[in-house]
Amino acid sequence: MKAQKKLNVVLIVLVIILISIISFVGIYHMEKNQMVSMLPNYILGTNISGYRKVTLELSDEEAQIDSETVTLGETDLTENVTGENETSQEEGENVTNQSLADENTTTNETSTTPSVSAEEKENYKKSAEIIKARLKSLEVEDYSISVDGSTGKIELTLPENDQTDTILSDIVQVGNFSISDTNTGEVLMTNKDIRSVTVEKSESYGYTVVVMNINFNTAGSRKFRNITKDYNENAVVEETSENTTNEQPTESVENTTDVQSTTTPDTENEDIESNTSEDSTNEESTEDATEAKAKTIDLKIDDTDMLSTGFSEVIDNGVLTLTLGTSADSEEIKNSLYGGYNIAAILENEPLPLTYQVSENVYIASTLDINDVTIMIATLAVIAVIISIFMIIKFKMKGLLSTILSTGFVALLLIIVRYTNVTMSLEGFLAVGLAFIINTIFNYMLFSNLKNKNLTKEERIAKYNESMKKYSLTLIPLLILSIVCCFTNWDTIYSFGMVTFWTILISLIYNLTITNLLVRNK
Amino acid sequence: MKKKVIYIAIVIIFIIALIITAVKGLSVNLKYAQGYTITFTVGKEINLNEIEQIAKNVLGKNELLVQRVELFNDSALIKTRDEVTAEQLEELCNKINEKYDVELTKDSFEMTYETNIRLRNVVEPYIIPIGLSTLLILGYYAVRYKGAKKMLELLKYLLIAEGLLYSIYAIGRVQVNELTMPIGLMVYTLVIIIYTAICESNMNNKATKSRQVRN
To answer: How far is residue B162's CA from residue B169's CA, in Å, rounded to a whole number?
Structure first.
């Protein structure tokens, strides 16, 4: 009976050693004359593998806010921002473009500290904040951003994944949203009218439809309802020829204004008037004729026409639904979705006060090379050895057993994180070290309870149960932390949360099975 | 009395750390600091250690950060705190040409000024998850240990542990780098786990004692 128990203990220890060898060394098989690991590789997080570094510089273009904003009474803002852009661009060039070709002038250029007004600085900061807000809307958490207060240059690092290029393709869009009258160009709605934007996909007859819902705020909903009423498919605008206009200009304006119900009637009248006369002058025909044209609106982002449409019914729920794509191909659907998320992130936030362009876009390997990771793992191993020595000194043979148990536990955890595709960031690897300590805490609790050598089997089991209960309760705060971290989008915290979650789960199972068996067979 | 002395010492350390931070700021490594970046493509597979060695020889004792750029292993960037002179760049170009038997010209090297990354931005992503976790854990403590005593003690130990870590960085002029926040997170987790284990043990011992008294 005693021999059987000893044999059981030896067998359990051998199983632990086997798991440890599989996890730390790996198991390989021959494939195409190469030894290939049968275990999946670790998925490394941004702070270990690398990241995308993007430099945004002020664009050559002077205009940041298009003329539509001016129509809405924001002339001052537009003028200010435009002025700043000119200055900043010149300064940006002075400070940053230091090629070796200009070696003689490099020193002089860099030492120049350009004087930037507080307002300019504020706009640089605001631009960075808006880019941050857009990244947050896109649920990108693992980024860093810095802004040069003297040149407005923004440096951005992003995680490298299949979404990075799509994000970067639109990140510098100014983001001026407008709904305007196709015929008159009058701006009817802007970014200020938007509350939120959502992108959804739905299945229909084997095809996936990607739609974007632009949810307007209260004022926006009211405006939008009026637009859908005024720009219905049956509404027409009277477009008159030169002669007609000259003869009856007042009538033409009055007619148009009647159809449109808007908030700025004076401006509208002026716009429509000038628009009508321009159209009329360009007319080749001088015949007295009246042409009927359907009333439609243009949906624009940064002066780019996204859509031109009329409405068949009045929409009073304050939601404009746009179809972004329909396909049965998953790749196309993914592209439509990513594109939609980008537009949503732009529309949901303020437009950029300045126009930026991407001047550098490169992949940078992590500053932590393989040596640093090796040093980190070695440090964790040293800590584990110190803890083990402490346990061996305190509990003698049981201490050695504790070390074996904790090593086996960490080995099993590392196998599980590979099979469950957990992204391993620095925090993730440190959480593995933490797992060793956590399991050692259980062993400490257990072996402290089992210190008395004269315990019967029942007493030993009772002590084990007591330790297990205590340990489970100890893990609750850690479980709270891991669950919160698992709901975070940020890669590194998520990695920590996932590893900690698996630590808790595996630790409970491991100690309920392997440690329990060892205690029973002792 | 002994506890009081320890607390006073801790408070003094915190104050010193705060004064140093206010006066000199925290010391940051090159990744977070402002500096000058020289980016170049050799066109052949390069060894970062060799590039670092060359850069160290040319640029003297300047603190350097050498990183691989793009996936082809033929481009790199060198970041320094101080501006690199034209002569140093020329020498760097020559030495790399010599080492890799290439004919890079001055135009192959691009030097740009990089602004610092604000530490506030580094800390920011941790605030919500850690803040929320702390609140929930403190709530759990209040329920589990029936009252605010243990809860406040946990909060106290968390502040002491994180404060001491911060003081080590501030007073010891240890460079804040990519490992700083993960280490802070580890310290936070360890304090919670160890203190909870102690509380559970104490509670268990009390329960055992009261059982023995009743028997």
So the answer is: 11
